[in-house]
Structures are given as structure tokens and as C-alpha cells.
Amino acid sequence: MLDLEFSTADLALSRFAYSPLWECVAALRVLKDPAEHAPHVRWIRAAAPRLAAVRADLALVDALVPVPTRTLPSFLAPTPATPAPRLDDELAALRAVPAEEVRGQLDEIGGPRPAPLRELYANPAGGLDRLATETRRFFDAVLAGDWPRVRALLEADVAYRARALADGGPERLFAGLDPAIRWADGTLSIRLRFHTAAYRLDGRGVVLVPSAFVWPRVFVKSGVRWPVTIRYAPRGLGLLWSPGGAPARAALAGVLGPTRALLLTTLDAPASTTELAERTGLSPGAVSQQLGALRAAGLVTAQRDGRFVLYARTAVAGALLAAAG
């Protein structure tokens, strides 16, 4: 169990972000251990051949992401500096990690070092540049085509959690974050497999990072250089790879109409009318009108969350998408 004691300053400094660099690391873990990641079965079937095609060029990143995973070096994915960083910005931060930090974290991990890790230890600057190049190659070959869908899920979760914090404070925020996370009396307790500690944050706050590929675990990064970073599974993960997209949209358009088909296939995660308008390019008024029709047909539900109403697909809609896809 990891216990983090918050002060008022820590709460004020806590923030949300997502990380395309971390998603690369976590996605590689999923592909190396598919039996442990049931929500991604459909994606694994499509992505595994893409990984096989480039794996020979990923020796360093492959060595740094072992399976089973007890711990990962923090420098693999620097904590995002902004709420929605670009992968290239995060790769620049990766290349800038100091050499002594790379060597120190490799020493902490211990165990035998394959040749790529020995080379990284001997030449951290050159190794980090190679690691960044390999990570970009992995993203382009394996994850890039699915990134818009993953990003939409992460953005929707950040928006939801931010509203939960604004409407109900930390108790409401952390209560629904993950079953392994509990908030009580100013302390955040996180049930971890391989780590037990208790300390005060002392004004550092935390960075909350939803991750599509982290389930069923929660990953926590702490240390002197980085703020405490908590990576957790976002809401709606079970629907991430549900059939949808262009084929299903085209099939449904003849029955529901193009606008309603677009909205239904876009609802991979619960969203408000404003969020759906931003994703689809429709006006908020048009989105609201069409959602009303979909709701009347039993294809979407509406649930108030504070000042917002979030819409989600029903099981009937999921079955309809599956048939259309």
C-alpha cells in the first residue's frame, strides 16, 4: 500500500494530463502479455502483426519493458508537462533526461542486463536518442492508426474527472478513480503489487494520467525529479475497441441517417453535447436534437453529472454496431 498525505497546496497543484509516450510503453506491455489484457483482445489481433514487422528495430525499448513487469524505469516516460502533449514534445523530454538519472534507475532495477541496456548505461545520451527513435517507430507502425480513438477516450476521461473534482472535491474525484485507490482524511491510499510506503507530498501535488493500456493495474511514478504520477484506467475502456468507425457508420446511415450514425459511432466514451460537437464538427443544437431522437429510440442514455449531462450508448446500440461492423 502506498499512502500519500496531501496538504491544501498539494490539492491545488494536482492536475490532469494524458501521455502518448506512456501509451506507447503500456501498449507494448499489452502486446507482450496479451493474456492479461482482455479488454484489448480485438486490438491485439490487429496490432500484433504490425509489431512483428518492426520488432527487430525495437531492441532497446523491448529490453526496457519486460514481461512480467515488476517495475519500469521512470525515465521511460517523463511526466507530461502539459495536459495534452504531442509525442514529439515528450520524446524531446526523454532525450533530455540526465545521464546520472538513467544510470541510477538502471541500478535500482538490478538484475542481468542484456546488451541494449549495457549500451544505454555506458552511453546514456546516445541510448536515449536511440530509445526515442525506437519509440517513434513503434508509434508510427503500431499505434498511430488507433491513436485518435485512444486520445478521444483519454480526453473524455480527463473532462469527466475535472468536473468531478470541481463539483465534489477530492473525495468525489478519487472515489471513482479505481478500486485500488481510496481517499480518506487527506490521505490517498493506493494498493500496489510491489511497493509499500507512506510519505507526505510536501507541495508537489500529483499528476493524474488516464491510460488506455494500463488496466488492470495502477502504475505510480515517484521520485525527486518527477512529481508523483498516477496512471489509471479511464472510464469507458470496455467500449474502446467496440465495432464502429466508417464501415458501421456507412451501414447505419441508411437506417438512422448520416448524422445519427455519426453520433452513435463517435460515442466510444460518455460525452456531453459540447464534447460531441467538438468531435464531429456539428453544432451543439444539432447534436442535442439528434441525441434526443437516439435516446427516444433506446440507443443512448443521458445521465446528469453536476452541471453537465453525459450521453452514452446503450447495450442495444452496442449490438447494433456489432452487427453493422
Write structural notes for this entry.
With 325 residues, this protein is α/β, with parallel strands linked by helices. It has three domains: 2-16 and 149-236, no CATH class; 20-146, no CATH class; 242-324, Orthogonal Bundle (Arc Repressor Mutant, subunit A). 52% of the residues lie in helices and 13% in strands. It contains 14 helices and ten strands. Strands 3-4-1-5 form a four-stranded mixed beta sheet. Strands 2-6-8-7 form a four-stranded mixed beta sheet. Strands 9-10 form a two-stranded antiparallel ribbon. α2 (20-32) crosses α8, α7 packs across α8 and α10 crosses α11. It is globular, with a radius of gyration of 21 Å. The model has no long low-confidence stretch (mean pLDDT 88).
Please provide a brief summary of the model:
The protein is an alpha/beta fold and 325 residues long.
Radius of gyration: 21 Å
**Poorly predicted residue ranges:** none
Describe the strand arrangement of the main beta sheet, using strand numbers.
Answer: 3-4-1-5
String of helices and strands? EHEHHHHHHHHEEEEEEHHHHEEH
Shape: globular
From the helix content, strand content and strand pairing, which structural class follows? alpha/beta
Please name the defining characteristics of this protein:
52% helix, 13% strand, alpha/beta, Arc Repressor Mutant, subunit A, 3 domains, 325 residues, 4-stranded mixed sheet, 14 helices, globular
